[in-house]
Amino acid sequence: MTNEEMQHAMEFIIRQQASFAANIGKLTESMGQADARMSRLERAFVGLFNVVTETATAQKTLTEKVIDLSTQVVELKESQAHTDERLNAFINVVERYISERRNGDARL
Predict the structure, then answer these.
(1) What is d(CA 34, CA 42) in angstroms, rounded to the nearest whole number?
(2) CA 20/CA 30 separation, integer angstroms
(3) Sequence-ordered list of residues with C-beta below 8 angstroms from that of 100, at least 6 positions apart, any chain
(4) How far apart are CA 81 and CA 77, in angstroms?
(5) What is the pTM of this model?
(6) CA-CA distance, 85 to 18, in Å (whole number)?
(7) What is the DSSP letter of 104?
């Protein structure tokens, strides 16, 4: 290899090395931007996860309250039926008493 060929080879290697260094600089910059985007995505994901978790917790609480309310409604319905029975019995007694008083039977 001649001196001139050796010089061209070294210049080529130096140009390649400079090109590699420039590309590594660009890749480093791109990597920094990608890291920043990844950090934003991670924060967004955590925020979304928290919202979903809070929503699920609220839904569970609401479901429990609806079940409790349904139970109370059933108990109220049963109590109302019992009250209706007692009220009807009382009304029957009062009607019988009034009816018998009108008919002149004052035994009550």
Answers:
(1) 12
(2) 15
(3) 107, 108
(4) 6
(5) 0.54
(6) 99
(7) T
